[in-house]
Amino acid sequence: MKKQILQAVAATVFVGLVPLAALAQNAAIVNGKAVPKARMDSLATQLAAAGRPVTPEMQPQLREEVILREVFMQEAQKQGIDKTDDYKTQIELARQAIMIRGLFENYRKTNPVTDAEVQAEYDKAVAANSGKEYKARHILVKTEPDAKKIIADLKKGANFEDIAKKQSTDKGSGAQGGDLGWASASSLVPEFSQAMIALKKGETTPTPVKTEYGYHVIRLDDVRQAQLPKLEEAKPQIVQQLSQQKLQKYQESLRAGAKVE
């Protein structure tokens, strides 16, 4: 008799465990339909990728979100939304986007940027930027007479930074007293860089410098050897750049190899 009672209790416990196991796999049951917990996990991953990591305190909100989506989806199905042409088109576009993203992610995994490629790209950048850097200020105006007047005022003792703040049409540098920061000559338009490198430290261009942007009055504040980041500092940016270049070439090769009629 005792054995039969134990068996009955065991059976009851086992039956009771089945819903618990199912519940552990689901976030909720909405109108009799299971909402897999995997949806919460996937949504959390998406939020994290967008810069909004999900904390344990946010789990109830996440659960409510997937429940609401299921409620709305069920109602949309009742109304036949999933039978419309627009729905089918959007589903196909979403399917394509997911497949393409998977294709590109798989390519990146199987074609990683190597340390040798990073070193080669870094060496190339060092060779191209191992010269001098210039710290200059400028005042940009629309007409040559305006620029000539500014040069005349500077010769009389006017303050370069004050004029830049008040008159320069380059509002970005103007707000900083005309300061352009450190830059290589090659990063500036040719007319500007040629006039700048001809100056000695502290000198201002004696005549206006015309470029496609207008007329410049340039003052050279300082010169130094180019300051380049170390390889390890630049590596993340180089890897990202090379990875994108590889992916671009892969995309181009697929398009070139496709038979389009």
From TrEMBL:
Listed InterPro entries: PPIase_dom_sf (IPR046357), PPIase_PpiC (IPR000297), PrsA_foldase (IPR050245), Trigger_fact/SurA_dom_sf (IPR027304)
Residues annotated as signal peptide: 1-24
One Gene Ontology molecular-function label: peptidyl-prolyl cis-trans isomerase activity
Pfam families in the cross-refs: Rotamase
UniProt catalytic activity: [protein]-peptidylproline (omega=180) = [protein]-peptidylproline (omega=0)
Keywords (A to Z) from UniProt: Isomerase, Rotamase, Signal
EC number(s) stated in the UniProt entry for this protein: 5.2.1.8
PANTHER family, per the entry: PEPTIDYL-PROLYL CIS-TRANS ISOMERASE HP_0175-RELATED (PTHR47245:SF2), PEPTIDYLPROLYL ISOMERASE (PTHR47245)
Protein's name according to its UniProt entry: peptidylprolyl isomerase
Organism: Variovorax humicola
